[in-house]
Amino acid sequence: MTRLGAVTAPERFGPYWLLDRINVGGMAEVFRGKQVGVEGFERLIALKRILPSVSSDPDFIDMFVDEAKIAVLLQHANIAQTYDLGKVDDQYFIAMEYVSGVDLRTIWDRARKRKRLLPIAMSAHVAQRVCEGLDAAHRKLDDTGKELGLVHRDISPHNVLCSYEGEVKIIDFGIAKVANKVSRTQAGALKGKFGYMSPEQIRGINVDRRSDIFAVGIVLWELLVGRRLFVGNSDFAVLEKIRNADFEAPSKLNPRLDPGLEAIVMRALSADREARYAWASEMAADLSRYLFQDGQIFSRGDLARYMAQHFETEIHAERERLDGYRKLVLPVEAPRSRVPDRSTVVDERAAPRVTAAPARPPAPAVEVKPLPASMARAITETRREGTISEVSAPWIGQTKASSRPQGGLPTWAAMLIGGLLVVAVGALGALIYVLAARP
User: What residues does each domain of the chain span?
Assistant: First the structure.
């Protein structure tokens, strides 16, 4: 599986099976993976794994681990879920929710190639869902009830996924910031994609949730206009445009825009963060209100229909691929063994392994029935002569549920022998009686 998208044999990686590689960057690679369990349980996952080239970089590993620790706290329909953080052979990995779809940049690029804009209602709907996911992250509390002060810092079309079923998911909290944690970011270092930074990020001012709101404003502006907002001949030129809030109102490039929607975009893009929305939920509410008042109700089903219309080939290929993965019969992971404490570890060579025998179940209650008087006499007299040492008859010890004696004869054989013995004893007793009755 060295090539992108190549499928050979599934590769075992810790508790997961890697199926094929989805993406690869300078520091990590992402695979489609599968988790299997008992009774046919299985789950498709996305697994992000650190590349060997950076596996010894402590700063990157810290950032990678921080991403997992932050993302696992966030449970929201508009945030891709994080399931697991682990390490296999010195390679850290994160197991995440697999979203069957494409990122917003891919959707936007396809519309541009057709020289068309995305539907206005769809653009507002996607931005609204992103705001709802961000608001959940921004409001997340720690165990003491205090706000974590979480900021994503890298909201862009690349980090927003739209599933083929119409879901909108935020991904990649790799450079997210927690307010009450000492940041490892060096002075002057910029975190995030240049074209989607806020003015305060560029100035090196401490960022808060309103920086994410500015980034959502950039994304929405681009979806409505069909072009990049902040562009330049160099990264420095781009950063200067952002710092000075040098951009045009979207209606100048798309006259069809409603003034109410434009007002939402412009407020989110205020250079002064005090003039922006204080919370992402406020922007989401305004977008919802705009869609309702304008009669442009756009739902998850509408987004799914758009995806089906414009990504038909990709959806067909994805279904075939996933169907093939479902048919794979993969071994279930062996239970993870607990790492014992060193003080409890003994040398197996010094002491033999002792395996306790399983306890036998208690014997069932026995119902004892008295013998007939004549039979008791016969047995007593026969025992005196030493011909029979023990007699087993069905009525001597009947149990509520028959069971086969361990290490003895089958039940039917024991009953047959017992019956023959009873007949023999009876005949012997009759003979003794007749002989005793003769004069």
Answer: 9-98, 100-180+190-325, 366-437
pLDDT band at 393 (very low <50, low <70, confident <90, very high): very low
Q: How does pLDDT run across 265-320, given as a tens digit for each residue?
A: 999 999 999 999 999 999 999 999 999 987 888 999 999 999 999 999 999 999 99
3-state helix, strand, coil in the chain (%, to 5): 40, 15, 45
Residue with tokens 């086969």: 404
Which positions ≥6 away from 23 have C-beta within 8 Å? 4, 29, 30
Of the options 3.40.30.10, 3.30.200.20, 3.30.565.10, 3.30.470.20, the CATH number for the domain spanning 9-98:
3.30.200.20
Per-residue tokens: 421: 């013995």
How far the first Cα of the chain sits from its last, in Å, is 106
Confidence category of residue 161, pLDDT binned at 50, 70, 90: very high
Q: What is the rounded distance in angstroms from the CA atom of residue 67 to the CA atom of residue 65? A: 5
With the CA atoms of 240, 244, 248 and 249 taken in that order, what torsion angle do they form, in degrees rounded to the nearest 10? 140
Active site residues: 154
The whole-number pLDDT of residue 141 equals 92
Cα gap 318→306, rounded to integer Å: 17
Is the CA virtual torsion 16, 21, 22, 23 positive or negative?
positive
How far apart are the C-alpha atoms of 265 and 80, rounded to whole Å? Answer: 25
